[in-house]
């Protein structure tokens, strides 16, 4: 299996290189512990949409820059600096190659959140004398929506496009909302809650024809599905390292050279940047394998769930999606109680009970998913390292947990008795 | 939450069952409610306060309303029992 085999390589490499082996060995030991013993069940991680472990090859690439090649890439006067600068430029090229861009158009940031802020706020502000309008969607990541709110406070108009019940925007609505003073369209490539893909190439073509900049938050797509910024007419693109088996704390922003928006420069953490570059390189090499692997597991998971458990809905279009990010609603069972019942699996829910504000997921609400089903949702996300055993184990645990919770559910009882839930008076008067 | 109580001829709750669609705290609150009402008289059960349930379960502030729902469920069940009892004695 890929994970275990590569683990051994990392340990051997680290020992051979004579680097401070503590890090790699501790990592390998931690992995062994995570894998469990003969008697303890293995805890299963299926929340890769939240974050991913580093690919051992990424760690391999980073370690030297933490101990031997530790120079500041900005140091111009000695080999430590030059070597770091070379490493950064190599990383830049790897990232660029993965999206068909020139390395000169890649800016490293602290992550996709910063990249989104720079793009969404930077472009309109730069053109604020003549442009007053921004278009985005209702299902964007919080950092994009918050950036748009900030722009509104500065006097910009923002159009938040609704989505259809399958999670996709309506191209005609997008076209109709473009104004002469629209500075930017920002629409995410793959949604982080439901996995749906927007028609990025179509949006890019439309934006170009109307001379509007097009930014896409590609945090969940980069390294997983093919992207070409020229073919897709993308002007700005946000990248997250820790979503593709790279280190946390670094990301990138692609900015097309002409025309260009201003952006800040900052001192680069060489080891993190090298990590992102390595992650991009590995993703490029593994994309064919990864896609096939994740698609097969996703199909197995969905099939297994639908066969074993009645009354399950898939949230978001079944086809226009990244298969590794699935969102299911289990009717008549609440999400947080389901998460608790599945404590040996790491997943997340769109239920209100799991959010501090007690509001259900705004993404699911935008799909017009009913309140009950929004409360009953689970997000399951797969990876390069996921296995058939993990998927089968999850299906079995889900079946058991859903059955147990439905036995406890008054809604399920009523439905079994043939009652139409919409006719129930829920609170008694007394 | 759905709460069912079985009350004997002395007005003592002999058995109680629950069903809940809700988070872990809601399920726990309603489950605890059934445990607490068993063996109590109808009057004693009516005196159970949501604060007691919340304290026993160490519910965090964001989950306190789950205990309120449980208290409501108890009161609604007792009210329903009273109504049925009146109907029975009328016939």
From TrEMBL, chain A:
Pfam families in UniProt: Aminotran_5
Gene Ontology cellular-component annotations: cytosol; mitochondrion
Biological-process GO terms, alphabetical: iron-sulfur cluster assembly
Alphabetized UniProt keyword annotations: Iron, Iron-sulfur, Metal-binding, Pyridoxal phosphate, Transferase
Stretches assigned to the Aminotransferase class V domain: 44-264, 272-392
Enzyme Commission no: 2.8.1.7
Requisite cofactors: pyridoxal 5'-phosphate
Key word Metal-binding present: yes
Molecular function terms, GO-annotated: cysteine desulfurase activity; iron-sulfur cluster binding; metal ion binding
Enzyme class: transferase
Family indicated by similarity: Belongs to the class-V pyridoxal-phosphate-dependent aminotransferase family. NifS/IscS subfamily.
PANTHER family membership: CYSTEINE DESULFURASE, CYSTEINE DESULFURYLASE FAMILY MEMBER
Full protein name: cysteine desulfurase
UniProtKB/TrEMBL annotation, chain B:
UniProt cross-references to Pfam families, sorted A to Z: NifU_N (PF01592)
Species for this entry: Thecamonas trahens ATCC 50062
Gene3D superfamilies referenced in this protein's UniProt entry, alphabetically: 3.90.1010.10
Name this protein carries in UniProt: NIF system FeS cluster assembly NifU N-terminal domain-containing protein
Segments forming domain NIF system FeS cluster assembly NifU N-terminal: 1-86
Residues annotated as signal peptide: none
A Gene Ontology biological process term: iron-sulfur cluster assembly
Lineage: Eukaryota, Apusozoa, Apusomonadida, Apusomonadidae, Thecamonas
InterPro entries: NIF_FeS_clus_asmbl_NifU_N (IPR002871)
GO molecular function, one term: iron ion binding
């Amino acid at each position: 299996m890929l994970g275990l085999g590569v683990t051994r390589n990392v340990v051997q490499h680290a020992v051979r290189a004579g680097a401070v082996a503590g890090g790699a060995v501790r990592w390998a030991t931690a992995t062994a512990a995570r894998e469990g013993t003969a008697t303890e069940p293995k805890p299963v991680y299926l929340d890769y949409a939240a974050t991913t472990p580093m690919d051992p090859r990424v760690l391999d690439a980073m370690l030297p820059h933490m101990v031997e090649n530790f120079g500041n890439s900005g140091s111009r006067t000695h080999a430590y600096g030059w070597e770091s600068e070379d490493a950064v430029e190599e990383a830049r090229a790897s990232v660029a190659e993965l999206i068909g861009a020139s390395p000169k158009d890649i800016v490293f940031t602290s992550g996709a959140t910063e990249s989104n802020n720079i793009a969404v706020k930077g472009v309109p502000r730069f053109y604020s004398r003549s442009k007053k309008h921004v278009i985005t969607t209702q299902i964007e990541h919080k950092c994009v929506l918050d950036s748009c709110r900030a722009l509104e406070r500065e006097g910009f108009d923002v159009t938040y496009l609704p989505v259809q019940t399958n999670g996709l925007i309506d191209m005609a609505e997008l076209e109709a909302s473009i104004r002469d003073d629209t500075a930017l369209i920002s629409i995410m490539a793959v949604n982080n809650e439901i996995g749906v893909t927007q028609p990025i190439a179509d949006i890019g073509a439309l934006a170009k024809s109307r001379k509007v900049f097009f930014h896409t938050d590609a945090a969940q797509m980069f390294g997983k599905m093919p992207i070409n910024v020229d073919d897709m007419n993308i002007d700005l693109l946000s990248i997250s390292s820790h979503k593709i088996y790279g280190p946390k704390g670094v990301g990138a922003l692609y900015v097309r050279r002409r025309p260009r928006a201003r952006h800040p420069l900052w001192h680069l953490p060489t080891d993190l940047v090298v990590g992102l570059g390595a992650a991009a390189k590995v993703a490029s090499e593994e994309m064919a394998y990864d896609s096939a692997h994740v698609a097969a597991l996703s199909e197995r998971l969905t099939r297994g769930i639908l066969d074993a458990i009645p009354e399950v809905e898939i949230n978001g279009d079944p086809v226009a999606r990244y298969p590794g990010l699935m969102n299911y609603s289990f009717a008549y069972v609440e999400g947080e109680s389901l998460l608790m019942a599945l404590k040996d699996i790491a997943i997340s829910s769109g239920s209100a009970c799991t959010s501090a504000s007690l509001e259900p997921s705004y993404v699911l609400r935008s799909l017009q998913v009913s309140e009950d089903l929004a409360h009953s949702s689970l997000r399951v996300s797969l990876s390069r390292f996921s296995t058939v055993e993990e998927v089968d184990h999850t299906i079995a645990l889900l079946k058991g947990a859903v059955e147990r919770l439905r036995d406890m559910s008054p809604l399920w009882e009523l439905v079994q008795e043939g009652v139409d839930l919409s006719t129930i008076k829920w609170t008694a008067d007394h | 939450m759905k709460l069912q109580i079985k009350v004997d001829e002395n007005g003592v709750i002999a058995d109680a069952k629950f069903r809940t669609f809700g988070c872990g705290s809601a399920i726990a609150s309603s489950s605890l409610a059934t445990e607490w009402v068993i063996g109590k008289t109808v009057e004693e059960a009516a005196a159970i306060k949501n604060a007691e349930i919340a304290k026993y379960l160490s519910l965090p502030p964001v989950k306190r309303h789950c205990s309120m729902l449980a208290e409501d469920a108890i009161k609604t069940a007792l009210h329903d029992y009273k109504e049925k009892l009146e109907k029975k004695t009328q016939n």
